[in-house]
Amino acid sequence: MIESESKADLLHYLQAARDALLWKLDGLAEYDIRRPLTPTGTNLLGLVKHLTGVELGYFGDTFGRPFFDEPPPWYGEGAEPGADMWATPDESRDMVVGLYRRAWEHADTTIATLGLDAIGRVPWWPEERSGVTLHHVLVRVLGDTQRHAGHADIVRELIDGAVGMAKGNDSMPPGDQASWESYRGRLERAAQDAGRN
Known about the structure:
Blueprint (H helix, E strand, L loop, with lengths): L2 H21 L6 H5 L9 H16 L33 H21 L5 E3 L9 E3 H27 L16 H20 L1
Antiparallel strand pairs: 1-2
Helix pairs in contact: 1-5, 3-4, 3-5
């Protein structure tokens, strides 16, 4: 496979994960996109904000292409731990989503400009292992984005029951609420039975 095909494949799946993540915000109120739904505070808008920093760091700073002249307080060295995982009341949905989309553009320019074997240095990794290729970074960010899109799937289902892989492709077997409740009940009984053994 030639490099341009490899790059195109990786970028295709990265973009699909980006789109899936943002789709999970569609139709929800401000409270719901910010509401922490796990004991560690996982929330939809925080996942978007986090992945914005992931893309800007790995595709920007790592390859000497910083995005920010003056980084915001949630980004980079000295940031409060976890500040990238939630949005303050002053950080609007439009601001966070808009910054994520600009991070894509910045990342996509890095990807288009450099070869897969281009070497960068991840500034927040230990020096002895900070050297990476663009290929490594692409695979890493793709994996991270898919992982967080999966988190978003679960958080969205907890909010309003909406499920699915992508707009227009929910990838779910057919069933109404009653059939899903029956299915879940069957799984619960199986778990209880296994727990007694």
